[in-house]
Amino acid sequence: MKNIKELFSKKTTKNKIMTVILFIVIVVIYIEINVLISKFNIPDKDLSKSKLYSVTDESKEKISSINQKIKIELYNFDEYLYSSDIANSVDLIKQYPKINSNIEVTEDSSTNYEVPTVIITSDQNTRQLTVDDLFIYEESTDTYAQEAFDITEQEITNAILDVVSDNKNKVYLYINHSPYGSSVQTVFSILLRKLDNRLTEIYALDLSTTGNIPDDCSTLIIPTIGEDISEDEKNELISYINNGGNILLLQESPKILGIEIPNFQEVLNLYGISISEGILMEGADEYKLGSVPEFIIPQINNKSIIGNKLPENSKLLLVDSAKINFQDEEILKQLNVSYEVIAQTSSEAYLRDDLSNTVYEKIESDEIAGNSIVSALVKKEINENITSELIVFSNSIFATDTNISVKDEVQNQTKNR
């Protein structure tokens, strides 16, 4: 089993995993659902006879009625047009003025930007995207090479909608009791920077100092509890939930962290959930990466509120993930709690409670844990007018800036056999 601190001591390698980008999409969808902002859900791409990606009707519908002047500036793309992926992205961006005459696209070879950059500006707001924001990258299980999936239309359309919006979401990052210590904001820097670019104001929340969660908090992000919370913090979190507060929780297995969290468990009890002590191992080859059972590629529920808004072929990679346990239906009914699965393992997964055992094959003490839930959207009805929502992942590593080499992990495991 990987030690969390060990993961953050790894150096960046050529063959790396970076599913944090997809997680950012999930976070943004979640926040926007809660503040009732209608955003763009990217459908299948349309490759026309002219070999250009066409802007979809859904995007046209969102953009055509905008009556503000929008300027889209493309910097330093000209040197990268030999790449068909980047050339297609530029061609698609140039179609936006045809949808709305208030939109202007310009190109500049300025050296002020080290990488190709898109600046989208309205009278009151600005969004900046780099070429990497226009793609989701996944690592091939066969070649260990990165594959790019184009999300240009989703990013550009949403950026335009962002800069004409007067709404700014205030998201608070709960920095208390983190296993990442004082580095928690650095560890999640990509996530925080991307959210900030989404016209979301990010604030660090030290509840032991402030004593309360601000009233303007649209979402509270809890990036893993590494030690139990205090009685006062527990009571404040319970009050926040009972007033309709929304939470995004990334929680590792308490056993892998070497902790007990009775006070924090009382908070989770409001939603009828707990996080397993053991960690999940994937038995199905197609749902693990590089033959490493700890590297789980869960099945995303495309019928869920979150899943059906994700780009096609979206994948997450969880490392040493725990299992999310729900109370039985009768208790959930008493708690006024309902949930839908966002992601789960295959039917061949198993749960390992003996974390000292590093054997990859299933052993006798492992528990059968097929179709285990690793992410869910949980809704708790407080009364007719108030509902608290929780998105929970039983893992946090995947959402950090950490780069893990699957190739190196496979080679190390082979040497140890």
Task: Figure out the total of helices.
Answer: 14
Mean pLDDT: 81
Rg for CA atoms: 22 Å
Main beta sheet: 8 strands, mixed
Distance between the termini: 16 Å
- The best one-word shape is globular
* Secondary structure tally: strands: 22
Widest sheet: strand ordering: 8-7-9-10-22-21-18-15
β-strand amount: 15-25%
Structural class: alpha+beta
Low-confidence stretches: 2-21, 32-52, 413-417
In helices, the fraction of residues equals 25-40%
Short description:
By secondary structure, the chain is α+β, with helices and mostly antiparallel strands. Helix content is 27%, strand content 24%. An eight-stranded mixed beta sheet has the order 8-7-9-10-22-21-18-15.
Give a description of the structure:
This protein is of the alpha+beta class and 417 residues long. It is built from 14 helices and 22 strands. It has helices at residues 4-8, 20-34, 57-63, 84-93, 96-99, 152-163, 184-187, 189-197, 207-210, 231-242, 254-257, 262-269, 329-334, 406-416, and strands at 70-75, 103-108, 117-121, 126-130, 135-139, 146-150, 169-174, 200-205, 219-222, 247-250, 273-275, 279-281, 288-289, 292-296, 299-300, 318-319, 324-326, 337-344, 350-352, 367-368, 373-381, 387-393. The chain has an eight-stranded mixed sheet. Mean pLDDT is 81; it is low at 2-21, 32-52 and 413-417.
